[in-house]
């Protein structure tokens, strides 16, 4: 140690003496951004999303590759959605981010061909983001039913799709059943169905309200287009809140309506049981008949 102390200062700057001096920090060279995802955030901001919107978007499906996320978001912007609307849609249905971009584009083009053109498509997707997942075959089946079996005109169909886009997700049999009930049982024409937005109302609610009015003598199925009373408009039956429906159309109380719905549900259960019993009875008769003929032979 004494020998080390006798070394001149110049010696401390070379050889082993260098290890005794603190190392100088080297300037940082170019490299990846220290914040994870900052490059992706910059790309989203360039597409039109704010910093806060980009942050929220990056929080969705965090394991998703940046190219897929950016492509899906850009495709939604191309549909006419604003950045906030596109983000809200993805927050409600984040699985859209995993949908291949080409399929997303094809679904949008198919919806346009079916009548959801212009702003209708943007509104429909905002209301029912699941439309972008529905297979093309199912979309076409719903439209074909509404045009060919329910006989809506092209303009009426566009209005139905614009106001009730969820019809494209329904099974055709379900749509047809609701249409037939309104057309034959209630005597309502297609034009009035469109104005009333028939397919926005669940079938059970439509049936409950109609039969309740009917049993109170306030609705009558037209015969050859004629009725003995003035039926309320379908639009009022369906779109009025329940409280207003009961007060202004049914002239009843919520308690009476609740009792009626329970009784109607019980009637349906009993009817289903009778139908099943009748079916088994027919099967037994067929077997007995077949057994008798075999015995005679």
Key features of this structure:
15 helices, Mitochondrial transcription termination factor 4, 3 domains, mainly alpha, disordered N terminus, 0% strand, elongated, 297 residues
What features would you describe in this structure?
The protein is mainly alpha-helical and 297 residues long. α2 (38-47) crosses α3. It is 62% helix and 0% strand. The protein has 3 domains: 46-114, no CATH class; 134-200; 201-282, no CATH class. It has helices at residues 2-6, 38-47, 51-58, 66-78, 83-92, 101-113, 119-127, 136-149, 154-163, 172-185, 190-196, 203-215, 234-239, 242-250, 254-296. Residues 1-36 have low confidence and may be disordered. The radius of gyration is 34 Å and the shape is elongated. The protein has 15 helices and no strands.
Question: Could you outline the blueprint of secondary structure elements for this entry?
Answer:
Blueprint: H1 2-6, H2 38-47, H3 51-58, H4 66-78, H5 83-92, H6 101-113, H7 119-127, H8 136-149, H9 154-163, H10 172-185, H11 190-196, H12 203-215, H13 234-239, H14 242-250, H15 254-296
Nutshell version of this structure?
This is Mitochondrial transcription termination factor 4. The chain is mostly helical and 297 residues long.
Summed over residues and divided by their number, the pLDDT gives a mean of 83
* Strand residue percentage: under 5%
Total DSSP helices = 15
Total domain modules: 3
Spatial shape: elongated
Roughly how many Å is the radius of gyration? Answer: 34 Å
Contiguous runs where pLDDT drops below 50 for at least 5 residues: 1-36
- The helix/strand order is HHHHHHHHHHHHHHH
Largest sheet: none
> How much helix, percentage-wise, in residues?
55-70%
Region (Disordered): 268-297
Signal peptide: 1-19
Biased composition (Acidic residues): 269-288
Keywords: Signal, Transit peptide
